[in-house]
Amino acid sequence: MLTYKDYISKVKNINLKRETPPLCYLHSFGCQQNVSDGEKITGLLVDMGYGVTGDLRSADIIIYNTCAVRENAEMKVFGCVGELKHLKEQNPELIIGLCGCMMQQKHIAEKVQKTYKQVDIIFGTFALNEFPKLLFEAITNKKRICEITENYTENQEEYNIVRNSSFKASVPIMNGCNNFCSYCIVPYVRGRERSRNSSSVLNEIKQLADSGYKEIMLLGQNVNSYGRGLDEKIIFPELLRKINGIDGDFKIRFMSSHPKDATQELIDTIIGCDKICKHLHLPLQSGSNRILKAMNRQYTIEQYMEIVNYARSKIPDFSFTTDIIIGFPNETYEDFLQTMQIVRQVKYDNIYSFIYSKREGTKAAEFEDFTSFEDKSRWMRELLQAQREISTEHYKRFNGRILSVLFDAESKTEGYISGKSDEFIIVESKADKTVIGQRKSVKITRTFNWALQGEIID
Ligand code: 5AD
Ligand code: SF4
Predict the structure, then answer these.
(1) How many CA atoms lie within 13 A of 57 on its CB side?
(2) Which terminus of the chain is more exposed, N or C, with fewer CB under 10 A?
(3) How far is CA 367 from CA 68, 121, 360, in A?
(4) Which of 201, 284, 207 has its CA nearest to residue 239?
(5) Alpha carbons 47 and 160: distance in angstroms, whole number
(6) pLDDT tens readout for residues 48-73
(7) Rounded distance, CA 51 to CA 45, Å?
(8) How far is ligand 1, taken at its centre, from the CA of residue 69, in Å?
(9) Ligand 1 center to residue 132 CA distance, Å?
């Protein structure tokens, strides 16, 4: 039987016969984990002889790596795929592929097959190894192919990863989720939790550090339950300490942590390790114990606050960010006010808030919901307004202070570049583009409700 590597060679041989190398365009929707999968798929395409382009119109193959977490993420994908129809008409040789979380759902894959005839290849989150074969068949047989398996065959070590950045790297340390929060599609589209061996994670990070990467983002749907199910005995804080021990001029971040697995040992490790950013993204989802229970979050607000208070007792400035869902089925205004209370109490440096979106196949999709969308939208506006006031006030603590900032982009403000401080706050400075990719000390001179501004001093 041919392996995926054989199919890589077969496609490459076809592409080598062309006068100029064909080009691939890939866009990942959704979370960092999906973006990280996209880097592996791009790696496969490069191995198969494709060049990479950021211009959709010049591409010989277009891949959309999709997200299923909320309905609006799915609508975006359908919109983009619809727009490809005329490109396919102009160039019938163009290959269009859809992959990722959305495609792992049968009803969606079927809808795509039925409605979007321009799509040649469909594969889910478990079928990366199948992709070269699917592509070979699409090129040679000119037939449309759909491959949605639930067998996990991927081996991280084997992949050539084409990273989107030369100074920030994402490293998945685990994949999948066992928590089954009642609103969430992830366990259905990414399967059960699987942690990578620590030696494999550490080797990858050593290589990244040697190549000069300045920031390593450890990824997982539930990073802080890392280690469960592995033969070796290791827990997440221990992995963090080992990574911290690797030589190199880099900082460590990780995302996302589940409050039920956030221990004092985790906080002590963050504080005790010089390379770890003093910031924790700790999704709250709701400030109401009644709603947390219906969400199957497996913690109470009191337990959540215990971990926040512990971190703040060690470092009063410890930075927290969070995710919040507004309008879970039958959430009342009283429940929402409890969320507001926690938001005011914790003083997050940033919140990512979402109106609840019903996901077919999840437990919460069966719950009746009497709360109107208008009410949910109004609560959302209230929350955002409160957070703007909190950030405006809370960011002032940085005025005059020196923060370490990794600059990663040009700013919308003319002549400025922007980056993230260790606290995960946007910082802008007047500087040349050549500073992008460098970590600098910045003295904060101005604060807004969404960012800080300052002068680079070193
Ligand atoms: N509706 C709205 N938001 C959701 N999230 C996950 N599932 C849903 C849903 N069905 C949010 C959660 C999670 C973040 C990644 O997306 O807040 O932490
Ligand atoms: Fe979207 Fe979740 Fe899949 Fe990430 S894991 S792409 S958030 S559905």
Answers:
(1) 2
(2) N
(3) 20, 35, 11
(4) 201
(5) 8
(6) 999 999 999 999 999 999 999 999 99
(7) 8
(8) 6
(9) 32
Tokens of 125: 């989150």
For position 11, what pLDDT does the model report? 97
* Span 358-378, average pLDDT: 95
CA of 25 to the centre of ligand 2 (A): 20
Q: Is the pLDDT of residue 155 over 70?
A: no
Helix then strand then coil, in percent of the chain rounded to 5, is 40, 20, 35
Tell me if 329 sits within 8 A of 357, measured CB to CB.
no
DSSP 434: G
Q: Half-sphere exposure (CA, 13 Å, Cβ side) for 270? A: 25
Q: Torsions phi, psi of 425, nearest 5? A: -110, 140
Question: For residue 448, how far is its CA from the centre of ligand 1 (angstroms)?
Answer: 27
pTM metric for this prediction: 0.95
* pLDDT classification of 148: cutoffs 50, 70, 90: confident
Distance of alpha carbon 4 from alpha carbon 132, whole angstroms? 6
Lining ligand 1 with CB less than 6 A are: 69-70, 183-184, 283, 285, 323, 325, 354, 356-357, 359
Q: Which atom of ligand 2 is nearest to the CA of 65?
A: 6
The alpha carbon of 358 and the centre of ligand 1 are apart by a number of angstroms equal to 10
Question: What's 276's DSSP letter?
Answer: B
Mutate-to-test residue for ligand 1 from 34, 183, 328, 377, highest number of ligand atoms within 8 A of CB: 183
